[in-house]
Design brief:
Layout (H helix, E strand, L loop, with lengths): L1 H28 L3 E7 L2 E17 L2 E4 L5 E6 L6 E2 L4 E7 L3 H33 L5 H30 L12 E3 L4 E5 L7 E2 L12 E4 L4 E8 H4 L7 E6 L2 E20 L2 E11 L17 E18 L4 E3 L2 E9 L4 E7 L1 E5 L3 E6 L7 E9 L1
Antiparallel strand pairs: 1-21, 2-11, 2-15, 3-10, 4-6, 4-9, 5-8, 6-7, 8-10, 11-14, 12-13, 12-15, 13-14, 15-20, 16-17, 17-18, 19-20
Helix pairs in contact: 2-3
Amino acid sequence: MKKNLLRYAMIILVLVLFLGTFVFLYFNSRPKAERYETLSPTVMDLSKTTIVTGKIEPRDEVAVKPQISGIITELLKEAGQRVEAGEVIAKLKVIPDMNQLASAESRVRLSRVNLEQARTDYDRQKTLYDKGLISANEYEKVRQAYDQAREEAAIAQEQLELTRDGVSASNASSSNTLVRSTISGIILDIPVKVGNSVILTNTFNEGTTIASVADMSNLIFRGNIDETDVGRLSVGMPMQITIGALQDLRFSAALEYISPKATSNGGANQFEIKAAVAIPADSTGGSAPLIRSGYSATARIVLESAAGVLAIPESAIEFAGDSTFVYLVGGTASNPTYTRTPVAIGLSDGVNIEIRQGLTAHDRIRGNLIVKED
């Protein structure tokens, strides 16, 4: 008797579990009502933009190099200071070539011997001329020879000073030992120190850079743009520059160069662009310019724009091949209906998209799914 009761209880428990599972699965498999947000087209301005990363550079940056080889004895300027064209940046001490020095010394000695002989001849002939014993023509020849000997001695001495010291008494103010800036601007860098050896530019060497000088009031933005966007660019297009270190400032720029040749960057083809940056007058200062060479920057370029167009969120568009559709909302608030309607689209800014045909500002369309109701 007890065994039968236990058997019946087990059977009833299994049936209850089976029926409960069936009921649970049935109710969960029933379709649920869907609720969508309702949207209305809006008249707005749209623009398609692209962001280009790059950096700020001076248009003209000059490497100041020495005209002779030597050792730096004095630096008169520091990086960040303003310098005018022709202003001295550094002084050099010449390291003479021993062969040239020996030749210059030999020439001085020879010129002095010739000068002494010419002086002796001149004094002798002048005494005779004063006594009327020789003609004026003979006297003038001797005097001319003496003058030439003095000039030759002076030239030989000056050449010796130039070879030995890089400067002579007659050209101290314009000596090659004085390294001068070739342009007016800000000194960006002085990569040498007092005591460093420097060499002049020649066929086999670019020479030592004493300083880099640039006009920081004439800046450009240099960056690279993807090949998918370069076809929409044209010289003269306006740009807005944001400098990473100066987030609160925006600068206008005008595109002035688009490279005709692509470069590969991580497998993507990109084209170099340059734009002239308009810097306000108060953004550059004497010795500490606000805008510094090499600042990272981004450029915002408007590729296309449309003003006063009818637009909806792009997420409300259904794309089917080359066709686009929206769902018009009808019915009542408690029981809405949705009608699939073809539309013609235009410019998209990535969030909203232009509707050229198929909708009016009074239509209501289906937006994103809000919730599924039981």
